[in-house]
C-alpha cells in the first residue's frame, strides 16, 4: 500500500508541475509552415505513444502469463511451432508505421519548402538574414534598411529569408513560424514562412557555433502591412546610414543589442553566389555559360569594330 501511495503521489506531482509549464513553441504555431510541422509532431507523438503502451502491455502480459512456477523435475515444456499471424503482425505493423511516417515526412517537406499556402499571388517580402559571431543581420533590399538582432515582418504576406553566414554554420529557427534551416558561408539558402497573426516571436541559432551560441538569438515582430510600412518610413527618417566600416565593426565576434540602419551591406559586401544564391535560386550553370558566351561575342565584335 505504501508503494502504491508513493507512486500515486509521484504521478500527481508530475502532472501538477507540467500544468504550470508554458506550451512548447513548436506546438503553438502562428503560421502555415509551422502548422504543418506541428501536425507532424503531434501525429508522431500519438503513434509513438500507442507503440509504447502496446509494448509495455504485451510485456506485462508475457511476464505474468509465462512467469516461473513450481513444476516437477521431469517436466518438459510443450514444443510450440511459430504462429504465422503473430509473425505477420510483428513484422507488418512496423513496416506500415515506417511507410506512413516516411510518406508524411516527404509530403510535409515539400509543403514547407514551397511558398506558404493561402496567400494567392501576393508578392513575398525578401529579407537577407546573415549570421556572424554571435548576432544576426537582417537586410531589406527593397526597403533599403537593415537591422541587427531583430526583424519586423508584415502579417498575411509570404516572407522569403535568404540565409547565409559570415562565420561558422548556423541554423536559422523561428519555432512558431517555421522550421530550422542552415546558414552557410559559401551559399544562400531560402526559407519560406508567413505569420497569420500579429505578435512577437522568438528566433535563434539552433546550431552550436562556439561559446556565444546560447545568446545567439533575435526577436521577430509580426504586424499588419500598414504598420510595417510606417515602421519602414520611420527607420528611413531616423536611422543612421550603414557604412562599410560600421558593418565590418559589427562582424567582430561578440554580443550586441538591437540596432537599425538605413541602407544595407548587400552593396559593398554581397552574399555568396552559387546554385542557391540570391534571387537566382534554382538557376544552373548553363545560364552563366550563355552569359559568358554573350560577353565574349560582344567583346569580339567591339575589337573588330576598332580594327
Mean pLDDT: 84
> Secondary-structure element order, as H and E?
HHHEEEEEEEEEEHEHEH
Number of strands: 12
Structural class: alpha+beta
Radius of gyration: 28 Å
Please summarize what this structure is.
It is built from 6 helices and 12 strands.
Structural commentary:
It is built from 6 helices and 12 strands. It is of the alpha+beta class and 307 residues long. It has 2 domains: 24-59 and 86-114, no CATH class; 125-277, Immunoglobulin-like (Sandwich). The strands form 2 sheets. Strands 8-5-1-2-3-12-11 form a 7-stranded mixed beta sheet. The chain has a 5-stranded mixed beta sheet with strand order 4-10-9-6-7. The chain is elongated. Mean pLDDT is 84; it is low at 277-307.
Topology:
Blueprint: H1 2-19, H2 32-65, H3 84-113, E1 125-132, E2 135-140, E3 145-148, E4 150-154, E5 159-165, E6 170-173, E7 181-183, E8 189-193, E9 199-205, E10 217-223, H4 225-238, E11 240-241, H5 244-250, E12 259-262, H6 285-306
Parallel strand pairs: 1-5, 4-10, 11-12
Antiparallel strand pairs: 1-2, 2-3, 3-12, 5-8, 6-7, 6-9, 9-10
List the defining traits of the structure above.
Immunoglobulin-like, alpha+beta, five-stranded mixed sheet, 307 residues, disordered C terminus, 12 strands
